Amino acid sequence: MRPKEHTHKYFLTAGECNAQRQMPITLIAQRVIEIATEHANILGVGYSDMIKFNSGWVLSRMSIEMTRYPGVNEEYSLTTWIEGFNRLYSERNMEIQDGNGETIGYARTIWVAIDMDTRRPSDLTGISWLAETINDRPCPIAKQSRLMPVKEDEATLSAQHRFKVSDIDFNRHVNSVRYMDAFLDQWDIEFFDNNDISRFEIQYIHETHFGDKAHIRTKYNENIAETEILVNETANCRAKIAFKSKN
Hints:
Helix content is 15%, strand content 40%. The chain is α+β, with helices and mostly antiparallel strands. Helix 1 packs antiparallel against helix 3. The model has no long low-confidence stretch (mean pLDDT 94).
């Protein structure tokens, strides 16, 4: 019997906290990827299973909403389940709870299987049985919105960024979380002292590699940031970030 849900419990150490002494949203994203990987392994569609067909999962889109963030020495957990599946992609959700079992956030993700040689989407018809693991458990946050380009004359923030060795992952492209770091580094520490992220949406469009020189262009207005990473004027990644004041 393949489990329709999978839960992992964690403990937040001081070394994992940000300057505001709480769990950074980038670590939540990392945990989202970890628990998705764990559940895929349990279901028999993890890396060791997919590579037999020269395929592998890549994260296409992710949305995270948090009502609060765990603090140092706090326990928390993530539970994941599959909401939908077809021959092109899988929709997977997560619930984040604190140590008391109170829900403090949710995440939505879309995963695409790609051919490891061509880097093009693989046809998932061969694992159609995965549809049997779809769970009708609700995920109350909105699905990903359409993320729009940021015109140069609309940008209120602009930065140059070069991706280095520490940004590169197992697949020899930029790690999913490193894009988030690059986006968030546009603001200073005082900004995050006074503001939390209530929702973070990200869309991965094209692979970015070691040495790529990127232009980060951001339109920030009324606590909403629309931002994108461009390489050679082509958008490789877009994000939309909603902030809320701590005051």
